[in-house]
Design goal:
binds zinc ion; disordered N terminus; alpha/beta; Aminopeptidase; two-stranded antiparallel sheet
């Protein structure tokens, strides 16, 4: 997103972190083990020791400095059933196909084969919403149009941010979404993308919000990269606050969206080794009422800001296809867990 005009992606000010911290803490207990597993997978523990510390309070993780390489998360964390294949046949930039060579997880390596498919998600539908559109910059009149998000009005869409080297958030989010689609499709899911590089601009945020219901999706994830302060790094997940105003009424999706948010937070960290954002949110979680994509969604939905594209360390990761494959793995695993552990 264009940080010059607002907060992360589409829309401005971030919410209070207090409420969120409470929510996160409450949810942490049942997740402590998974949290510890995730922590084990993070090589750079020093960057974020608060999470493990809290988890330790409840679960007392074993001794430890055994750190696994970032690319080798515990296969178990939140991933799908063990039979679930992961990335059958990577191939770089083919739309729809899972690129990257890189097996994101040990299980990916183990199961990689052209026959690696399963039906664990058969009958389930997922909406992936790649933030922004590479063509938005050339369509400012269209994307600057105001749309109704229930409790206010916002621009139809924004251009999104980019790394200092010019790798755009729109390219990033579309690539990761396509990679996640390949993984989920191999697990039997029907996957719909809110845009697949098949339109000149947009869609507008209200249309993105409606896309979940239009696809009869069971869950939705909007993929973004943040445009934060250069000194800040890490990822965070944005969950919907309850908004009942004007045309918005997302009361029914708040609880399941928070469940999805927690799964995504833990799964993404396990798959990528990316620390929680140190410049926004708390414990990798935020809750907002100013995002049209969440206010107007009729299906459980969260946003993920996969990293800060203005930060050199995060930019290097996000530009790396192998890391993007891990990011997609984390997103796909979270959706799989959400849809199979209801
Ligand atoms: Zn964005």
């Amino acid at each position: 997103m264009t940080r010059t005009t607002s907060g992360p992606h589409d829309e401005p000010p971030r919410r209070s972190r207090l409420l969120l911290a409470t929510t996160a803490a409450g949810a942490l207990v049942p997740l402590c083990l998974a949290g510890w597993l995730s922590w084990q997978a993070v090589a750079d523990h020093g960057r974020d020791d608060t999470a493990p510390a809290r988890a330790a309070g409840a679960a007392a993780p074993p001794s430890t400095s055994s750190s696994a390489p970032p690319s080798a998360p515990p296969s178990a964390a939140f991933s799908a059933p063990s039979s679930t294949p992961v990335d059958a046949s990577p191939s770089a930039d083919a739309p729809g196909a899972t690129p990257g060579t890189a097996a994101a997880t040990p299980s990916a390596t183990a199961t990689a084969s052209s026959t690696a498919t399963s039906t664990v998600l058969a009958g389930r539908t997922v909406l992936l919403d790649p933030g922004h559109n590479p063509g938005n910059a050339a369509h400012s009149a269209e994307i600057n149009r105001q749309v109704d998000i229930g409790n206010g009005r916002k621009e139809c869409d924004t251009t999104g941010t980019s790394t200092n080297a010019g790798y755009s958030e729109a390219e990033y989010s579309l690539d990761v979404s396509r990679r996640a689609r390949a993984i989920l499709t191999a697990r039997g899911a029907t996957v719909v993308l809110a845009q697949d590089g098949d339109r000149p601009w947009g869609p507008c945020i209200d249309e993105r919000a409606r896309a979940g219901a239009a696809a009869h999706a069971d869950a939705a994830v909007s993929v973004h990269g943040d445009g934060g302060p250069p000194g800040g790094s890490g990822f965070h997940v944005i969950m919907p606050a309850k908004v009942v105003a004007g045309k918005a009424d997302n009361a029914a999706i708040v609880e399941p969206s928070h469940r999805l948010g927690l799964l995504l937070r833990d799964s993404f960290r396990a798959a990528t080794g990316e620390p929680y954002a140190d410049y926004v949110a708390a414990q990798g979680l935020d809750t907002r009422s100013d995002l049209g994509g969440l206010n107007l969604s009729a299906v459980p939905k969260v946003f993920i800001e996969c990293g800060n594209m203005r930060n050199s360390t995060d930019a290097k990761r996000m530009t790396d296809p192998q890391w993007r494959q891990q990011a997609a793995q984390g997103i796909a695993d979270a959706l799989t867990a959400f849809l199979t552990t209801r």
